Amino acid sequence: MELEEALKTVNQAMLSKHGRVLTDAESVLFTGSWQGLTYDAMVEGTQYKASYFKGDLGHKFWEDLSNALGEKVSKRSFKEAIARFQATLKFESPQTNFVPKKQEIRINHYVEHPILEKIAKQEILKPGSLLRIKGSPKMGKTTFLSRLINYGQNKGLRGINLSMSLAEKDDFSSLDKFLQFFCISVAQMLGLEEKFKEYKWKDHPGNSKLKATSFFEKYVLSENEPPLILGLDELDKLFECECAEVPGGFLSMLRSWHETANINPTWGKLRLVLAHVWDYTDLDINQSPFNIGIHLKLKEFNDSQINELAQEYKLKLEQDDLDKIKALIGGHPKLINLTFQHLSSQAETLDEIIEKAPTELGIYREFLRQHFSILRRDNNQELYQYFQDIINTQESKKMAS
Question: Which pLDDT does position 101 carry in this prediction?
Answer without folding.
Answer: 35
